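Ticket #4471: structure export looks truncated?
Reporter: QA, pipeline team
Priority: medium

Steps to reproduce: submit the single chain below to the structure queue and open the exported record.
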Amino acid sequence: MLTGISALGWTLIFGLLAAGAFKLPEGGIAGVVLAIGAVGGAALAGRTIVQLFSWPPARLCFFRDRMLVIQGRHEMRAVWSAMGAVTLSEPNSWPRVRLTDRLTIQLKNEPALVLKPASFGLAPAACRDLIVRLRDEPKLRARLPEFDSIRDLAISPVVAGELIEPRL
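Actual output as written to the record:
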């Protein structure tokens, strides 16, 4: 993002300098060089815009104790110890297993977590293999960062004593 804004700024500066150079009697060569710089800045800004729009629309985060899926304003958590099967097959398709591009993570005492790895910029099979490996290898998970959410850091009021006002 910063690259795109900088490129637009340099495009404007080089464009104005090129226009000023073309007005000078001997400034034709300098005007051409500055115009080429302005075109290069515009190309870089265009490339940044294309990259910005091709950015994955969702986030997949791995922590020591859980996996976090953020899609827009929707946040889903899956604790490693609560994970069961991690599969690319359609749920309840046994014995005729059909592979899909959706990853289904069965959780204990919770509904299954279903996500499309492609929306995170990942290949489905590689994403499944990574999640299974992280689920099964605590030593590998120990290398991940600890879960640290802004909501966890927010100071919540201490509640002690009676909760009902007026007292009954």
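Status: closed, not a bug. The export was complete when the record was re-opened. Leaving a note from the reviewer for reference: The radius of gyration is 27 Å.
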